[in-house]
Amino acid sequence: MQGAVREHRNMLHRLGVETVDVLNPQDLDGISGLILPGGESTTVGKLLIRYGLLTPIAEAGRAGLPIFGTCTGLILLAKHINHSRQPSLGLMNACVERNAFGRQLASFEADMPIPALGGKPFHTIFIRAPYIEKVGEEVTVLLRHEGKILFARQGNLLAAAFHPELTDDTRIHEYFLTAQTSR
Ligand code: GLN
Q1: Choosing from 8, 71, 97, 173, which is the catalytic residue?
Q2: Is 18 designated active site?
Q3: Any residues with CB less than 8 A from the CB of 160 and at least 6 apart, and which?
Q4: CATH code for the domain in which residue 117 is found
Q5: Structure confidence by residue, pLDDT tens digits, 64-97
């Protein structure tokens, strides 16, 4: 609907994965995973309702479809969005704080070690990013920094507060493809 769709698509193509753009419920037929890109979550939530996608995606996620949300996608996955009644898929047992980094830090980049990826730190890019404040016990925290949860997994669901698609590093997309789709 919005955001760095092309960058996610390019990343998947580099990894040899075929893609379709999901713009209506029929597009969900036959896919083996779904990426929810960044953007503006209240707008994307409204568009998902308008295009009849919110309920079918939520049902697919509950039925086990691997879904990876970046930034706005993380917000849409969460069961609880602090101070907001905006629409969400309500799948991940997490409380999310939107636009959670102060004004000067609204956009920033940093190298962060992510043990699940092994090897060198990951270059994380945050753009008016949310963070996860707390999670239920079924959620595995993959990156926490200064008390803020920035990358997490719950079964078939993966959520990042940052934008791996804006880097050249394919490790997080590979993690989604291997860890999530081969459960
Ligand atoms: N601030 C946006 C929101 O609340 C998220 C920003 C992003 O996706 N880069 O939806």
Answers
A1: 71
A2: no
A3: 68, 69, 70, 71, 74, 150, 151, 172
A4: 3.40.50.880
A5: 999 999 999 999 999 999 999 999 999 999 999 9
